[in-house]
Amino acid sequence: MTHAVLTERILDATELTAREAVDGCLSRFDALEPGEKMELRTKDSGSEVLAKLQALRPGEYEWSPIEAGPPVWTTEILRRAKPSPRREVLEALAWDHDRLDALESEAFRARAAGDLQTAFDLYARFAAGLRRHIGFEEEILFQAFEAASGTPAHCGPTAVMRVEHREIEDLLEQIAGGIGDAASELDRLRSRFHAVLGDHNAKEEQMLYPTTDYLLGAETADRLVRKIQVYEGRSVRNRG
Ligand SMILES: [Fe+2]
Ligand SMILES: [Fe+2]
Asked: What is the pTM of this model?
């Protein structure tokens, strides 16, 4: 169980009906200050809650699945400081890059402080989030980009991004395997990881995401972000 990033604002809806979970989550969400977050625990993926947020609070929240059950699914819901009725791929996914970077830093701060269990838990949360991010890019975003730009999947920018994802996943596995062990030497691996991921994210934020927004137009880009929120795809279970 992770402690350091858990908020006091937890809604355990595992014993509630779907209707109660939706109503309870909405009222907790409305009580959040801008920039605050809560944690939702459900006995399914929480898709009914997400559908309600998408319908009634468009652009006001960030939906970040943390761990997939069964038996319990955990999702972090943040009230956006600057809500916008329509989302864009660039701002939504650049925000996710930053969220994940912060988790990775927290994990290594815990390790430096000698708290190996927290380091392990936080890194597992980071790794699950990054795997999900890679999953929705490859299964949703890249396909939309390829269709809109007429670029085939086997060449062009998305092909390069896929190759980089494999290297990122490989480094992620290696670091996840050592983060909870004080004897592991991770400095060089982590430097390599930062170089590859930093360069990859910069390319996405400077080229792929804005081009996708431009090609799709505001309405379709917003629909794509909603589809990404719903994405369950590859398991987000903490495997770190
Ligand atoms: Fe990516
Ligand atoms: Fe990305």
From this structure: 0.93
Q: How far is the CA of 205 from the centre of ligand 2 (A)?
A: 8
Q: Tell me how far the alpha carbon of residue 67 lies from the centroid of ligand 2, in angstroms.
A: 19
Distance 208 CA to ligand 1 centre (A): 10
Under DSSP, is residue 75 helix (H, G, I), strand (E, B) or coil? Answer: strand
Asked whether the predicted pLDDT for residue 234 surpasses 70, the reply is no
CA distance 107 to 150: 40
Per-residue pLDDT at 68 exceeds 60: yes
Ligand nearest to the CA of 228: 2
DSSP 110-130: HHHTT-HHHHHHHHHHHHHHH
Ligand 1 center from residue 129 Cα (angstroms) = 12
Say yes or no to pLDDT of 239 above 70.
Answer: no
Q: Which residues contact 209 (CB under 8 A, 6 or more apart)?
A: 88, 89, 90, 93, 94
Q: Residue 69: its pLDDT value, please?
A: 87
Q: Please tell me the number of the ligand nearest to residue 89's CA.
A: 2
Beta-bridged to residue 143, according to DSSP, are none
Domain 10-79 has CATH 2.60.120.280: no
- The strand pairing partners of 77, in sequence order, are 38, 63
- In this predicted structure, what is the pLDDT of residue 217? 98
Token reading at 82: 């600057």
